[in-house]
Amino acid sequence: MARTAIARQFGDIQDLEIVDQPVGDPEAGQVRIAVRAASINPADLKQLRGMFGRNEKSLPLRLGSEVSGVVTAVGPDAVGPAGPIAVGDEVVGYPVRGGFAAELLVKASSVLPKPASLGWGEAAGLLVGAVTALHLVEAVALAAGDRVIIHGATGNVGLAAVQLARLRGAEVIGTVSAAHEDELRALGAVPVLYGPGLEDRLRVLLPDGADAALDTVGSDEALDASVALVRDRQRIASVAGFARGPELGIRLLGSGPGADPGTELRSGARLSMLQLAGDGVLVGPPVVSFPLQQVREAMALVGSGHAGGKVVLEP
Questions:
Q1: Has residue 305 got a pLDDT over 90?
Q2: Could you tell me the pTM of the whole model?
Q3: What are the residue ranges spanned by the domains of the chain?
Q4: In CA terms, which of 152, 180, 182, 312 is 20 to 30 Å from 162?
């Protein structure tokens, strides 16, 4: 039996509870992981609220798509993207189902080696943001010398996008709050405060416009500034602007309506993103930890939009 966070109905944070559930032994192509940390993403809150649909057959709902932990059992043919998986391996699991648990079964294809230099929370909270950021960078074909605007530059996705863009030799201008200006400068990017007048502030730095824009926010000001400053709208990519994206003619990425999910690209990037992080080249956001039994409080912090880092649960 393993402590597990579930919701017996679609609803909201108050519907989450901790129960003991059987885990079972891994079948062919599966492994069992003792979870050390499970990352909370905004998508988990959306799933709980039924924003991805309300299929009653999926109840009780188990949330959590990325974890880190130790392999406790393997089934036949337990081979992951990096090769055979063995009991005792320290790993990252993504994507998984029901990661808010002390232990769970995972497809071997979702299990990757955890870099020794990463803590459990860092490893659990890296991949969703990193592979999404790479998808943004690839979608606009970012190259050396490009001037790119990154909206939400110190969020989980934006932070990774800034670093990946800089690795490609791009000049990065990132929108941030005043509290995060120094953080962005330390990454070699130029901070610009978001809020009213954003387009004017960006034009001071980009009198000839920008070559591309990556949007992780979806706000009107971010989208309006992007289309005003980037001539080719196919070099504007958003993972949040689903309401206005189609009318603006920009690229939409992710799980929203009409978006390119980039499944193959994101899956193929997992190992390389972990390697970059393990080498200290890609730095994730600060980790904010909660014990599993405080899943409601942790989810509420994520929902507030002011977590100040990557929120993880520790069973």
A1: no
A2: 0.95
A3: 2-125+285-314, 128-263
A4: 312
